[in-house]
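Minimal example, chain plus adenosine monophosphate.
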Amino acid sequence: MANAGIVKGDRVIFQVKKSPEAIFLYLACLKLGAIAVPLNNSYTASELSYFLDDIEPGMVVCDPASPIIKDKLLHARDRTSLLTLDEHGKGSLFKNADNFSHSVQVADVIGGDVACILYTSGTTGKPKGAMITHGNLSSNALTLKQCWGFNKDDILLHALPIFHVHGLFVALNCALLSGTPMIFLAEFNVDDIIKFLPRATVLMGVPTFYTRLLSHPGLDSSTLKNMRLFISGSAPLLKEVSDDFYTKTGHRILERYGMTETVMIASNPLKGERIPGTVGQALANIDVRITTEDDKTLEVGATGNIQVSGPNVFKGYWRNPEKSQEEFTKDGFFKTGDVGFLDNKGYLTIVGRSKDLIISGGYNVYPKEIENIMNTLDGIHESAVIGVPHPDFGEGVIAVIVKEKNNKFDESNLKSLLKQELATYKVPKRIFDISEMPINVMGKVQKNSLRDKYRHVFE
Ligand code: MLC
Ligand code: AMP
């Protein structure tokens, strides 16, 4: 990368499959002080075009099958180097590496310098790049290593994608900092997890990992003989899943809470009481408070907005100072958009979200982004996207539409159209056609009433 002229502050986009070489790429960015921008492998050409425009990368590394190459998305950006990396670690990125100097100087970075930008969508439907600093990463990794007792005798079973906080900053950084070997799986597949669990000591996953494991006949004591810790996060872990897992395995899953903008915020303890339904206590040096809409701190037990401050909190949104300012209080707390309460031991319970967000299998889906696209499609007058209970993904995305007069409704055709624009996990699993949207006195669609109506769709 240094040989390609990448210097401190340059952005390096990567949209690559999971491989050890992808980790080397991430680490090379950190070493050079370049800003790593990992992107979800399932993004479509139109999603990717937005990120390329917004980030103006100095380098793009992608899988040979990425739309960046197939659809020539970099055509007009002749100053950006384009390199490839496939799932076997092959491609132009490492092709001539032997001819290059191996002694690259570590860049002079300070804690406040941006290490990575991760995109999160938003209530407006436009993704925002969260600027995560070297200080955010190092403070969080050090805290988590300590909190979860990571050490070099552990073996981490890594089956998460490495383009999000969970797989990249929580799982990978913890392992790297602790010298912990990993069984590094290309993706989550429940049979592979069962196969490799006997060799592992720690598994990290989203709740879907645990519901799938619970229904696997191979989950028994011989599979778990070396396991010391199961960690869950990114989405709510149902108390009944936690209890069933405990009954079946004797392990109480450790649930923790975080988000892209804050990395990890709170965790149940390694030693001490893990309370299902809560996400535990604030991590060391992190302040969590519950507030009213006008940012006044509420007393223990009262439900309100969850706000966070500490060395884990990001620097702001890339090229979006207004949005950054909006999301912070006057005294510097970040507004998470989650709603919850603290108990008298400091355990946090999340009861909902003030943001219109669906979390499906650990992936965030912002209804507005899908509605914006659906509303432009021929024949659709109005649309509303909601999340309803889903046995595998926790929440499943569905859409409700009102079609234009005399138009025919074809659910599978609509889904195919959406697949061209949106990553597959965002595409509604079901689309329903109704004659009129339920609206309130302010003229706003009553999503609660739709959620009630369709809550049994996936049963
Ligand atoms: C895949 N699909 C999904 C989906 N994952 N649909 C909705 N939600 C999801 N999460 C689509 C597939 O494209 C496919 O569509 C169909 O659903 C069936 O897919 P599958 O084979 O059952 O899914 P699978 O490939 O097994 O993936 C499921 C999964 C994966 C749970 C393993 O989604 C996953 O790895 N999730 C983890 C996400 C994550 O890392 N989140 C952390 C964000 S960081 P079709 O149309 O092809 O049939 C964060 C902060 C924090 O939140 O606190 O950690
Ligand atoms: P993301 O923007 O992808 O980083 O997702 C962050 C969001 O995931 C948070 O704001 C929460 O709403 C949710 N989240 C993460 N961990 C948990 C958890 N353990 N329980 C409930 N929600 C969670």
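The chain has three domains: 2-108, 136-310+330-353, 358-454. The chain has a mean pLDDT of 95.
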